[in-house]
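Our consortium's second objective concerns turning raw sequence data into structural hypotheses that experimental partners can test. To show how far this objective has progressed, the report includes one record in full. It was chosen at random from the queue rather than selected for favorable results. The single chain below, 65 residues long, was entered without modification.
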Amino acid sequence: MVELQKKLNAKSKVEVVRRGLRLLRDVTERESLRESYRRASRATRSSLESELEELDHLSGEGLSD
C-alpha cells in the first residue's frame, strides 16, 4: 500500500483506496455501456438490413446516366 501511495503521490492510504474504487467504478461503467451498445446493435441489425434493402432502389433515383 505504501509503495502505491508513493507511486501515485497520494497524501494518504485512504486516497489510494478511493482512487482504486473510482477506477473500478469507471471501468465497470464503461464495460456496461459497451455491452448495452452491443446488445442494441444486434437487436437492430436485422431490421436495418431489411430496411436498407427496401430503400436500395431509391439510391439512384433522379440521377441521370
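The partners drew two points from this record. The first helix runs from residue 2 to 8. The chain has one domain: 2-49. Both points have been shared with the crystallography group to help prioritize constructs.
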